[in-house]
C-alpha cells in the first residue's frame, strides 16, 4: 500500500462500542460496563472505565461516541456540583438524569452518545433512568451500547424484582460476560459499581475472573 | 458615548468565514494550472510511558507532505509548561498551534493561581477546545507531565475524547509502537529501562511505518527536572560520500572561499562623530 493513510483511528471517530447495564435492587443500584474503546477496527483503550461519577452517589454509564459521552458526563458533573451547592444537600438521581436528558435532547442531531444514569438518594432509594434520544424514563433496569442487543432476552428472563445486592451483582456480571463474548465491539474487563445508602463500591473483574458459559 | 460600530461578542463554534474565500482561491488556482498546497501531516509515531520517577515521552522526526518527506528533523514534542510537554500527531499546523494556544493560556492561568499547572488542567483545556471544533482540528496528542499529584499521562483524540493510561501511543506508527509496549511494559520501571523501551517503541514505528522515520527524540520529565534529548538516537544517519572523505571537506559547503572576488582598491574613511548630549530618563515603575 503506497498511500500513507495510517490506522483507521486517525480519521475515524473514537466510539465506545459498548455494553452498559444498570439494575435496581432493594436499597440501591448496580451499574456495569465493559472496557473496550474502538476506532474503526483498532482498540485504542482496552481498560476504560465507562462508569463515570456525576456525584457522590450518582453514576452514569457511557456509550456511543467517546468524545460526546465524556463531554456530557463532565458537563453534568459540573452542573450537579453547582446545583447541590445551591441546594445545600445531595442532589436527586432524577435531577442528574434530567440534566443529562436536557443536553441529549437539545443537541439530539449533533451528539451520538447514550448515557444511563443510576444512583441512590434519600427520597427514592435506588433508581435507574434511561436517556436514549433525549427521553427520560425510570426503569427497573436499563441496557445500552452495541452489545446490549445480545442480552435483552437474558435480562428479561433473569431479572427478579426485589432481589438482593449480591444476586443483582451476579446478574450484572453474567449479563456483561455474555454480551462481551458475543459482541465484537465489547470486551476487556468488566467494571461494576454498587451504590446504596452506605456508599459506593467499585469492582473490577479481569478477563479470567469473568463467569464462563457453554463455549468456554 | 456614541460608537461608530457595534462590536459583537464572538459567537461560539467553528468559524466558517474563510470557506468561501478558500473555494474561490481553489477555483482560481485550478484555472492557472497550479494546485493548492496540501496540508502537511506529521504521519508519526509518538508515545509516552509512566515510570518510577515520572514520564518519558518519545517521538520520531519525520514530517510528510503526501509521499514526500517535507522535514527530516522536525520537533514533535511541544512545550506546554515547565513541567508538562505534549507530543503531537496529525496535521502539523493543528498540533503546533493548539499546543501553543493552550501553553499560553496555561501560563496566564498559572500566574492567576500562583501555582505550577496540573496536567489534568492542560488535558481539560485541550479536550474542550478540540470538542468545540468537532474533530475538524486534526490534532492527536500525547500529553505528559509531573505535577504536585505525581506523574500523569493522557492521550487526546481529535474529536475531544481523552484516556488516562500508564502507556499510550499515537500516530500512523502507533500500532507498531503499542506492540512493543504491550510486550515489555512493567509498572515502576527504572529510568534507563524506560528510555530504552520508549526508544524501541518509536524505532518499531520508524522501521515498520512509511509515515514515520529519521531520528528519535525523547523527553524525560521528573519532579523538578526536564531532560529534552533531541536527538536521542539517530536511527537513520545519512552516509558520507566517498569523494568528501578524500578531500576532507564538509558535504554541501556552499560558501565562497576568501579571494574568489578580486579586490581592486581599498579606501578607509574615519567618521569623526561628536557626542552632542546624553540624557537618561528613568521609567516610572511606581
UniProtKB/TrEMBL annotation, chain A:
Going by the UniProt record, its keywords in alphabetical order are:
Cytoplasm, Hydrolase, Immunity, Nucleus, Protease, Proteasome, Threonine protease, Zymogen
InterPro entries from the UniProt entry: Ntn_hydrolases_N, Pept_T1A_subB, Proteasome_bsu_CS, Proteasome_sua/b, Proteasome_suB-type
Q: Name one GO biological process term.
A: proteolysis involved in protein catabolic process
What is the top-level taxon of the source organism?
Answer: Eukaryota
This enzyme catalyses: Cleavage of peptide bonds with very broad specificity
Q: Which Gene3D superfamilies match?
A: Glutamine Phosphoribosylpyrophosphate, subunit 1, domain 1 (3.60.20.10)
Primary localisation category = cytoplasm
Subcellular localization is given as: Cytoplasm; Nucleus
Q: What is one term from the GO cellular component aspect held by the record?
A: proteasome core complex
Q: Name one Pfam family in it.
A: Proteasome
**Recorded family membership:** Belongs to the peptidase T1B family.
What is this protein's function?
A: The proteasome is a multicatalytic proteinase complex which is characterized by its ability to cleave peptides with Arg, Phe, Tyr, Leu, and Glu adjacent to the leaving group at neutral or slightly basic pH. The proteasome has an ATP-dependent proteolytic activity. This subunit is involved in antigen processing to generate class I binding peptides. Component of the proteasome, a multicatalytic proteinase complex which is characterized by its ability to cleave peptides with Arg, Phe, Tyr, Leu, and Glu adjacent to the leaving group at neutral or slightly basic pH. The proteasome has an ATP-dependent proteolytic activity.
Against PANTHER family, the record matches this protein to: METALLOPROTEASE TLDD, PROTEASOME SUBUNIT BETA
Subunit structure and binding partners? Component of the proteasome complex.
Protein name per the record: Proteasome subunit beta
The species is Gadus morhua
Automatic annotation (TrEMBL), chain B:
* Reactions accelerated catalytically: Cleavage of peptide bonds with very broad specificity
Query: What molecular function terms (GO) are annotated for this protein?
Result: threonine-type endopeptidase activity
Which cellular compartments is it found in?
A: Cytoplasm; Nucleus
Looking up PROSITE patterns in the UniProt record yields: PROTEASOME_BETA_1, PROTEASOME_BETA_2
- Which stretches make up the Proteasome beta subunit C-terminal domain? 251-280
GO CC terms on record? cytoplasm; nucleus; proteasome core complex
Q: Which GO terms describe its biological process?
A: proteolysis involved in protein catabolic process
Show the InterPro entries listed in the entry.
Ntn_hydrolases_N, Pept_T1A_subB, Proteasome_bsu_C, Proteasome_bsu_CS, Proteasome_sua/b, Proteasome_suB-type
This protein's record includes keyword Cytoplasm? yes
Cite the entry's keywords alphabetically. Cytoplasm, Hydrolase, Nucleus, Protease, Proteasome, Threonine protease
> A Pfam family in this protein?
Proteasome
Q: What is its main location?
A: cytoplasm
What functional role does this protein have? Answer: Component of the proteasome, a multicatalytic proteinase complex which is characterized by its ability to cleave peptides with Arg, Phe, Tyr, Leu, and Glu adjacent to the leaving group at neutral or slightly basic pH. The proteasome has an ATP-dependent proteolytic activity.
Q: How does it assemble?
A: Component of the proteasome complex.
Q: Which family does it belong to?
A: Belongs to the peptidase T1B family.
What's the name of the protein?
Proteasome subunit beta
Query: What is the originating organism of this protein?
Result: Gadus morhua
- Gene transcribed to yield this protein: PSMB7
Amino acid at each position: 500500500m503506497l498511500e500513507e493513510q495510517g490506522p483507521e483511528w486517525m480519521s475515524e471517530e473514537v466510539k465506545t462500542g459498548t455494553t452498559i447495564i444498570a439494575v435496581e435492587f432493594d436499597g440501591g443500584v448496580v451499574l456495569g460496563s465493559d472496557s473496550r474503546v474502538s476506532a474503526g477496527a483498532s482498540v485504542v483503550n482496552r481498560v476504560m472505565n465507562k462508569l463515570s461519577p456525576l456525584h457522590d452517589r450518582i453514576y452514569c454509564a457511557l456509550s456511543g461516541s467517546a468524545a460526546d459521552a465524556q463531554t456530557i458526563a463532565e458537563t453534568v458533573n459540573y452542573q450537579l456540583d453547582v446545583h447541590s451547592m445551591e441546594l445545600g444537600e445531595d442532589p436527586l438521581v432524577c435531577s442528574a438524569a434530567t440534566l443529562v436528558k436536557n443536553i441529549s435532547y437539545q443537541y439530539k442531531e449533533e451528539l451520538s452518545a447514550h448515557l444511563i444514569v443510576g444512583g441512590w438518594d434519600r427520597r427514592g432509594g435506588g433508581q435507574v433512568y434511561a436517556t436514549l434520544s433525549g427521553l427520560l424514563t425510570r426503569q427497573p433496569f436499563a441496557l445500552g451500547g452495541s452489545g446490549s442487543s445480545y442480552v435483552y432476552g437474558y435480562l428479561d428472563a433473569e431479572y427478579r424484582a426485589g432481589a438482593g445486592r449480591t444476586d443483582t451483582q451476579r446478574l450484572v456480571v453474567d449479563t456483561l460476560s455474555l454480551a462481551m463474548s458475543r459482541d465484537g465491539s465489547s470486551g476487556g474487563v468488566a467494571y461494576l459499581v454498587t451504590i446504596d445508602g452506605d456508599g459506593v463500591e467499585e469492582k473490577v473483574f479481569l478477563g479470567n475472573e469473568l463467569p464462563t458459559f457453554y463455549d468456554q | 458615548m456614541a460608537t461608530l460600530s457595534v462590536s459583537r461578542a464572538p459567537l461560539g463554534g467553528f468559524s466558517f468565514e474563510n470557506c468561501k474565500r478558500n473555494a474561490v482561491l481553489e477555483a482560481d488556482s485550478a484555472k492557472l494550472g497550479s494546485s493548492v498546497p496540501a496540508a502537511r501531516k506529521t504521519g508519526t509515531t509518538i508515545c509516552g510511558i509512566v515510570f518510577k520517577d515520572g514520564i518519558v515521552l518519545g517521538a520520531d522526526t519525520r514530517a510528510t507532505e503526501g509521499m514526500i518527506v517535507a522535514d527530516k528533523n522536525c520537533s514533535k514534542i511541544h512545550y506546554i509548561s515547565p513541567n508538562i510537554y505534549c507530543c503531537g500527531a496529525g496535521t502539523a499546523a493543528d498540533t503546533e498551534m493548539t499546543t501553543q494556544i493552550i501553553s499560553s493560556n496555561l501560563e496566564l492561568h498559572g500566574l492567576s493561581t500562583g501555582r505550577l499547572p496540573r496536567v489534568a488542567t492542560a488535558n481539560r483545556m485541550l479536550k474542550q477546545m478540540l470538542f468545540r471544533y468537532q474533530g475538524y482540528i486534526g490534532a492527536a496528542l500525547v500529553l505528559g507531565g509531573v505535577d504536585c499529584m505525581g506523574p500523569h499521562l493522557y492521550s487526546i483524540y481529535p474529536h475531544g475524547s481523552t484516556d488516562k493510561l500508564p502507556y499510550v501511543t499515537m500516530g500512523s506508527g502507533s500500532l507498531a509502537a503499542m506492540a512493543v509496549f504491550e510486550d515489555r511494559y512493567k509498572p515502576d520501571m527504572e529510568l534507563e529501562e524506560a528510555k530504552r523501551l520508549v526508544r524501541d517503541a518509536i524505532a518499531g514505528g520508524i522501521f515498520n511505518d512509511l509515515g514515520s522515520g529519521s531520528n528519535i527524540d525523547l523527553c524525560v520529565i521528573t519532579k523538578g527536572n526536564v531532560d529534552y534529548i533531541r536527538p536521542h538516537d539517530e536511527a537513520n544517519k545519512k552516509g558520507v560520500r566517498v569523494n568528501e572523505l578524500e578531500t576532507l571537506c564538509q558535504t554541501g559547503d556552499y560558501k565562497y572561499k576568501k579571494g574568489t572576488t578580486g579586490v581592486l582598491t581599498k579606501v578607509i574613511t574615519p567618521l569623526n562623530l561628536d557626542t552632542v548630549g546624553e540624557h537618561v530618563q528613568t521609567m516610572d515603575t511606581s
